[in-house]
Batch of 3 targets.
Target 1
Amino acid sequence: MNPQNPPLDVRHLGRLAYADALALQNELREARAEGRVGDTVLLLEHPDVITFGRGAREGNALMDDAELQAAGYDVFRVNRGGDVTWHGPGQLVGYPILDLAPRKRDVHVYLRALEGVLIGALADYGIDAIRRDGYAGVWLDDRRKIASIGVGLRRWLTMHGFALNVCCDLRRFEAIVPCGLEGVEMTSVSEVLGRTVALREVAERVEFQLGKAFA
């Protein structure tokens, strides 16, 4: 990315309701468009929530909205790319609010950069994560997925972003077909390493990689 960009403002917000994070993203993107803030990334975790992207098939949620809510999930339909996914405690979610105009205006380059950020952070733990041709996100092999990516873009300003499974309850994915892909097994940093890894620790490594990629 452009080495002349100003420093990236990375904000660690702890646990934040999905609706509040969505409102904050919209507020920051408007401020970024008006030049009132610079490029910003929100790092946080959510309470249990199921989100449907623009391309989601309703059948990829294995319960209807009322059943999902009764099982403790909030439900949102949003303007990000991708299908259906889960966010919840122990999962590191990142929402970059970036201006891609100085960055070649290429969404594919941006997606690969986000994947590279997560692959670099996982490498710090000795985890050999990979890209998978034709599928956004970060994988360990053709079956196991450790991070999902779904972005939104308007006037070359980004929102939404990535979700890296750190120390989450992977059973919460059982309410959906993750990312609409049959046969995918969601895994986490803690499961791969066989020990509990703190979310904040991983967030700091992701912040370092974000700075290398975007600042």
Target 2
Amino acid sequence: MKTALMRPPKHWQIESDQQELFECGLDAATRYRDQAVLIIASSQAASCNYLQCKQSIDGNDWYGKRMRFSCQIKTEGVEAHATLAVSIKSPAGHMVVYDPMMDRSLRGDNHWTEVSVVVDVPDDGRWIVYGPCLWGAGKMWVADFKVEQVSRDIPRTDDHGSTLMLEPGPLNLRFADVSAGQADPVALDVLPGWRWPRGNACVGLKVLKGQFRGENVAVLSAEPAQSPLESNVAEGDDDTVFLCQTFSAKPYRGRRLRFASYIKAEDVQGEVAMVLMVNGVNYARLALSRMSLDLIDGCSDWAKYAQVVDVSEFAYSVSIWLQMTGRGKAHFAQVEVAPVSFDVPTTDGNHHPRNLSFSE
């Protein structure tokens, strides 16, 4: 398709993965309440192709404020998404806030409809980028654009987008979701709620029913590879086995979070570790705490360990890891993820200078 219209209004720019598939500019034949109307259209774009007519403003005047971006949108034959997308970037260009409105986009045919995005601007929100975006074929008309500060009583909308596919909270922390009819110990290929490097001849995952204070125990194991082709957990760089999951940070924002588990090690030639990570947009790391139980040729009886971090107001997800490096068996039971009082000290160790005298 030869682009017949590609002249955005003054102070607006075009961003597209395949610009030649789209038209964008003012629609001289359409008005909205006597205001000019922008049109974005395509007849050939696939659902993965997009064009955004965007504007960038300095975030300095908006630090710490809640902002609402809104406009009127009309659509015709939109096959994928017609949205208003807002992102905020740090001075280094990293995205720290993002709401592409994909979970509530307009599709098909719609009369004039008001859409809005509400976000908080963090202290490192240097650039604010916003504008209408069309994904795939169809037409969208845009008018009556507004940018304004709003009250904290108006809820943010950027819980969506990057967190759309996340679970609302942690799952199966007590390893209970296994079939009651299975033998004990239960050798698993899948443990609901958790990811692990299954399909590997050298690593194993079992659940021991009721073996710790009446509750189930998850056991990670790793054995030496019999051949170089047998496993990626052979002698070399990648010798960590793990259980992990990632879930929405929304219930924990502005709170202090503790990740705890009882752990027992059996003939571990390496280390057992717990990791608690708080992530921003696109999994940018906002906080990290890692506990390492160094057990070269070692064993340890049951003991409770915990990691504690603060969850930023701008966090999108939380990741938890139970892992073992090397060979042996690591047992985990009574896993907990819960907010705690701010009187409980954090374990991420990044808040104060440490060992300035080099004595440790």
Target 3
Amino acid sequence: MKKVHNFTAGPCVLPQQAIDAAIEALKDFKGTGVPVVSISHRTKEWEDVMNECRALWKELLGIPEGYEVVFLGGGASLQFLYVAMNFLENKAAYLDTGVWAHKALKEAKGLGNAYAIASSEDKNYSYIPKGFEIPADLDYLHITTNNTIYGTEIKEDLDCPVPLIADMSSDILSRKVDVSKYTLIYAGAQKNAGPAGVAVAIIKKDALGKVTRYLPTMLDYRVHIDKESMFNTPPVFSIFLMNETLKWLKGIGGVEAIHEINVRKAETLYAEIDRNSLFQGTAAKEDRSIMNICFVPAPGKEDLKDAFLAFAKERGMVGIKGHRSVGGFRASLYNACTQEDVDALVECMKEFEALNA
């Protein structure tokens, strides 16, 4: 098989260990003689997977008592509506740091009084707003911790006087998180936690049931907690791969170990972007994401964009074209992306500079 270096923003690179386990499970799931994609979610074998996956989330993130972990279909985009349905009663604020934060706010506005407490739209979302006041009468403050399109990241847990809700879709499991500071953390799996098709929600249970609106059954977090994520048929294959990905992460030392690896990968690539005469970064340096590294041609070198994409493709680089809304380049260094992958991209950039400087 051709050797490639996968920097796609999502669905993204997965650990080979998880892929190999999935291949075997597609042949025969746990000795049942049935492929995992055909197994009944009511069997003991499947319930064991669900229980193990839930336990791994709690262990890897140090989730305290009083929080529940649920697995839901629809990805993080459906969670935008879940959040507002379950928590918005009077007023909510959103930190507007990019496309996904903006979309989450749109869903909340459709249900009630929600507004952007601060925004970095004025500079094309190239930084994280700071120094904003958080009113004490908010039902919640919503943040998006990592912004895949613009390459910015909130790297520390905020001290927040109101319930804090976070979309961690693209940096969950990449660093330690003090879960106790959050009322809800949610994430689509397809960055660090598995393939597309499932979202995880980590919910402070006693924060639920406070809204007076009617909650449709499928949009009520309490239903999914009570039914242990099996009110309806769960996305079995996606959860299976998520479980295998978490097992891999635990095996290499957990979030503390992967954070060190991720920081080293990001520093390697940012150093080359800053050194190379053909490229420049787009995010404010203090807010640079360690997950999504965004850069563009240096001033006067814009005509080299397509040439570099073709050059990189020839050398096995996959998925480095920037999001269509911003252009340029983007390398996503999610957990399963290796230092070897990053080193290969850096060498590619150096070689391209030597040919075009």
